[in-house]
Design brief:
This protein is mainly alpha-helical and about 90 residues long. Helices cover about 75% and strands about 0% of the residues. The chain is built from five helices and no strands. One of its GO terms (cellular component) is plasma membrane. GO terms for molecular function: heme binding; heme transmembrane transporter activity. This is FLVCR choline and putative heme transporter 2. It is found in: Cell membrane.
C-alpha cells in the first residue's frame, strides 16, 4: 500500500515538473503582465525549487514533519508549527 502511494506521489511530482510551464502564453491580468515585465530573467520555477531545497530551515521542516514522534500526529503538528515559527524568525533577522 505504501509503495503504491509513494509511486503515485513520485509520478505526480514528475508530471508537475514536466507539465507546468514557467508562465502562460498570455498573462491573466494587466498586473501579472507588469509583473512579468519587471521580473528578473534569472527567476524561474526550477531555480526557485532548487533554492527552496538549499534552505536549511525548509529541509529541517520537511524532515521534522515527515518523522512522527512518540506523541503521534499532535506532536508532529506542534513540532512543524514551531519549525515554521523558527524559520520565519530567522528569516527576519
Amino acid at each position: 500500500m505504501f509503495y503504491i502511494i509513494g509511486g503515485v506521489a513520485t509520478l505526480l511530482l514528475i508530471l508537475v515538473i514536466i507539465v507546468f510551464k514557467e508562465k502562460p502564453k498570455y498573462p491573466p491580468s494587466r498586473a501579472q503582465s507588469l509583473s512579468y515585465a519587471l521580473a528578473s530573467p534569472d527567476a524561474s520555477y526550477l531555480s526557485s525549487i532548487v533554492r527552496l531545497f538549499k534552505n536549511l530551515n525548509f529541509v529541517l521542516l520537511v524532515i521534522t514533519y515527515e518523522t512522527p514522534g512518540r506523541g503521534g500526529r499532535e506532536q508532529q503538528q506542534q513540532t512543524a508549527h514551531c519549525c515554521v515559527r523558527g524559520s520565519s524568525l530567522r528569516g527576519r533577522w
